[in-house]
Amino acid sequence: MSEWNAIIGAARAATGRAPEFRRLARRARQLLGEGSRPVNTRPVRVALLGRSTLDMIAPQLELALLVRGIAPELVTAPYGSFMQELLDPESATSKERPQFAMVVLTPFDVPEWPQPMATAQEADALAERVARHLLGACEQLHVRCGTEVLIDNFHALPVRPLGNVGARCPEDPNNFIQRLNVKLGDLVPPGVHLIDTAGLAARHGIARWHDGRLWYEAKQPVSLELTTEYAQTIAAVVAGALGGSRKCLVLDLDDTLWGGVIGDAGLSGIELGEGNPRGEAFKAFQQYLRALRERGVLLAVCSKNELANARLPFEQHVETVLRLSDFAAFRASWDPKADNIRAIAADLDLGLDAFVFVDDNPAERELVRQVLPEVAVIDLPEDPAEYARAIEASRWLEVPRVTGDDRARAGQYESRAEARALAETMDLSEFLASLEMRARVEPIDEQSLGRATQLINKTNQFNLTTRRLTEGAVGSLVADPNVCTRTVRLADRFGDHGLIGVLIATRKGHVVEVDDWLMSCRVLKRGVERMLLGELVDWAVAHGASELWGRFVPTGRNELVRGLFDDLGFERTSESEWETRYRLLLDGFAQPSHFIDVLREARAHV
Amino acid sequence: MSDDTAILARLRDVLAGFFNNPGLAVDASTTARDVRGWDSLANVELMVEIEETFGIRFRTGEVAGLKNVGELVGVIARRTRS
Hints:
The complex is a heterodimer.
Chain A lengths: L1 H12 L4 H16 L8 E9 L6 H11 L2 E7 L5 H6 L4 H5 L3 E5 L15 H26 L2 E5 L20 H15 L4 E4 L1 H8 L1 H4 L2 H7 L5 H18 L6 E4 L10 H4 L11 H18 L3 E6 L3 H10 L10 E6 L4 H12 L6 E4 L3 H10 L4 E2 L9 H8 L9 H6 L18 H7 L2 E6 L3 H13 L12 H9 L3 E10 L2 E14 L2 E9 L8 H15 L4 E6 L11 H4 L3 E5 L4 E6 L10 E5 L6
Parallel strand pairs in A: 1-2, 1-3, 3-4, 4-5, 6-7, 6-9, 7-8, 9-10, 11-18, 14-15
Antiparallel strand pairs in A: 11-12, 12-13, 13-14, 15-17, 16-17
Helix pairs in contact in A: 1-2, 1-3, 2-3, 2-11, 3-11, 6-7
Chain B lengths: L1 H17 L21 H15 L14 H13 L1
Helix pairs in contact in B: 1-2, 1-3
């Protein structure tokens, strides 16, 4: 029995190490052949069907199923037509009455291809016929024997006689495969599950997936190297169909959801978003987690921190994607994590086998592995940019379907019931309105000081004066009551763009002069310029000014904004090769219209 | 022929590891039948492991019909040189 524990433990840790996994699979097969089984596994009979060689897949599929707590009895169908096995009530497969059947397909199994010069409509119709033909046969086995049938969709062919133009030719086999895969996805009946081999092969590369030599010599559908990935995907779908998908991610905080230690670094010291490379990687990871939550995965926090510190970034950090309300449980204390995980399990009324533990600290991971072997532990790589992929590669969260209940369970399913039909042609106003832009315009403060200074010093194109300032200098300007500082953060329908603009203007008597105005090129010509001008005018008027002045200082890199003040209605007062000066009288100034919903902080303007 | 001797020694190590038989002894006349576990299924995987170990790539059909370990060494040698 302890050898089974060693094999299964090693197999779990061997993600990404195919030769190791294969070696363990050979040993597991030997043990299974001797009649040995690990304890606490569920016996399940799985039939393997297909016209290609299935013998290489079988042992790896066995091990992948064992890792999921399933004791597999694998039955390989007789070599030959899988259609007969599915359709014939007297077939060997039908007689076995397996609980699951996996139909291994390759593009060479597509029964019919479009004719030369086929039209798109003809190709679509053929794709639908082929899809129904394949899925219908699977459905028959399901109806006859109660078997859950798994079937591949099709990866692209490794060569393409039409070449690049095939992308627009319905007769091109890869073009047809794409249509066919969409139809397969649309038409899957109950009791049948699609294995997204197209996606899997694309992620790894067709050249690595399909081994020509192995195909011609041994009719092997997948290269040896990637058979492990294939087997693990199949096992995850089987386990998911048996209710074995894990339901809750337990997350560490420091260096897992942000860079650095909140207790030491404080809000402005942790790395999260703000144009900082590591910070952006952590922010993207939070976005991935939120997407998981939206499709029904529960998130929980288990951190070694003071509770107040642990909560702080979710409550106050400007770049946080996750909020406290996203977590089904939140434990921060100095107690051992295993104890807290047990408590979380009790709180949520879930078994320990519903949890996946995510922590950047290998020592914590090992401890949880030892003390709570039922909890799955992700071997997080060192680079936060790779965190999401590591969770995905584990396949612990694969589900057979996503239901409305799943989304509701996570508690945050925004009703998108109105179909947002994109108009075929839209004029600019309609387009800008459809972006649903929201902006936060605020004075520079302690939290944004660093990022604002960074933008001031690195923005070249949309920069009117290209005045470079130290953080100290910016800080002094912020503190000066005669200076207006503003940061602009912009979000739209497609996401949060973060801090995209900085404006600094100084009042001297009745004139307010724009000293610094810079913006990210990503959000040009959307009305942000007009909106910001309107904000500045408000401030100027409130401080008794009657004129705005501006200047454009050419640097060779900022031609982009040479005409900005002209466009905004300023008049030129002087021009030289070093500088163009402008003036705008505020008497009679009308607030410009724009499509941006502006949120302002309710605090006294500085 | 010391090239081939070196290849044979390395090949022996691969076979010993693959078939879980540290004391395995092979020579040029050894055939698959002489090694426990060396069936056609194992052969497919074994050839890939040999490719990975020696950093070579067999041509399609090149390892079909090899009679013994000696002939296999010959193919490995050819691939290692080219």
